[in-house]
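re: ur question from the group chat, yeah i did fold both. here u go
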Amino acid sequence: MGTYKDLEGKRVVLTGAAGGIGLATAKRFISEGAKVFILDWDEKALDKAKAENPKLSGNAHGDVSNPGDVRKAFSEVDEILGGIDVLVSNAGISSRKPFLDIEYEEWSKILKVNLDGMFLCAQESIKRMKKQKSGVVLFTASTNGMEGHPLYAAYNASKAGVILLAKTLALEFAPWLRVNAVCPGYVLTPMQKLEYTEEMLDAAKAENPLNRLATPEEVAGLFAFLASKEASYITGQAIPIDGGETSGMILKDSDE
């Protein structure tokens, strides 16, 4: 039996779920007894996730920034799950580069995946949820969407957009739909490891009040809580999970 009994049997769709936070969240919802369908663009990672998680109800290969791929994936959701109760729109990409070095094509690609992808998946989900007048939509945003971080102009702009999209949808579809944005800080994911050296990760830990990075499983736990009835009065929020990173600066020489 999982932590949240009301998640048992819920139909959950997760994007960007063949690795990192997405896969950890898929596993968490499976452990709660939910019926889980995952969507990812990485076919090899998707095959591995399927093989290692036989309790997955279904999966689709596709690009969340491609309207045709998204429509096709949700048609498969209809066939396999017969609808949707929870969307965890998690797919995202990042690039670490000085602003003046960002090519328009790169800027556009990040915005398309990180923001257009959220729009497309949310629209398909809410069309279906509206018929049953119930549902939960959860977006993966970032603390980078809450405050400025140099070298991440495109990523930051996309995640700020995700936060305002969540707030707007929460108002537009209240009271029957809840919508929230989860805002992780540093999380030890494959994407983070690609962008950061060990020295950079150590520096990030040193600047964090809890002196560490989050695990994908900790973020997955927040998604499960927000999807459950325990969070029934939480909507329209951008919720940081960052070890206190956005609280302010810590004193380097403070007493232990």
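okk and heres the other one u asked abt
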Amino acid sequence: MQNPHNDNSKTAIDVTGVILAGGKSRRMGSDKAGMTIDGQSLFERVSQALGQVCAQRQIAGERPDLATQELPAFADSFPGSSLGGLHNALVNSQTEWVLVLPCDLAYPSAQLLQCLLARREGVQAVIPRTRHGAEPLIGCYRRDILPLVEEQIELNNLRMTDLIDRLQLRYLDEQDLPTGWRRALTNLNRPQDLERLLSPPPVVTLVARSGTGKTTLLVKLIAEMTARGWTVGALKHDAHKFEIDHEGKDSWKMAAAGAAVTAISSPAKTAIIQRHELEPQFEQLLTAFVGKVDILLTDGFKRSSLPKIEAHRRELNQPLLCRGEYDDPSLVAVASNAVLQLDVPCFDLNDAASLTDFIEERFLK
């Protein structure tokens, strides 16, 4: 069986992708579908994600402003509820399955949609479920559940949770979801949600004396946080000159000819190489991560005021950097292979899980 996390090679012909756009955006105070991130509206982002996995798409909601010939809109027969939006999707689609997404998702994920589609055999619906609960508005539903939906509407029971309790349902729990699932499930309801999303991410920097194993710890933290669904940025501070461009390569030739900024882009990644005489301030570097990661972990910056976790190894027989000649007030924790009595929490150097618990509680609540 193909890996649903990686297979974006074709669209499903038995599934209609439906954008739920019938809400009034009252808490936001303005139309959520038209709000933009990185120059692209939320509606466009959702539509694009669905287009990668579904051969057909439509809009559930009276939105002639969003509709096109290829992407028709249908008014809700029962407006004002999520169940009414699902009813709209089921009634107006012609395929066996519908894949629904709300129009207010900040980072809709085609990988997540592939996961849902890959697990639908033998059930009537597939939806994500995290420690915070089920996400029925991001789901794959078989069209034969329409009578159950209509029955609930007739009883004036508009709760989606009551519907899914009646279905042959498969949950995709956190361990089944693809990398970055937290952002893929993030929707925007209030102006504060968008403000927080576009604010600089929290930053934690790891510092240590040479030979402590700081980079090893950092790699473990990135892996642990990624496994928990966080999108993590990483930034290495190098006090020496480094080169990622190699002599003879096209980008090197462009830079040698005088280009101040060169870039290499592919479907998988982009690299921007910018030369400068003065090292940028950290705040300038941080702008590259805004809106793209949940947290930034850095290696170095030991003289900064950033929150620091210091790695310590008993065998080096050296004092802590941040509790040696002076007390660094930005130290928030220590990871050591020795038992230390400190004024900040001390974790086992090899226990990335417990240290991740601390980071989540301190920086990601």
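fwiw on the second one: DSSP finds eleven helices and 18 strands in the chain. Confidence is low (pLDDT under 50) at residues 1-9. idk if thats what u expected
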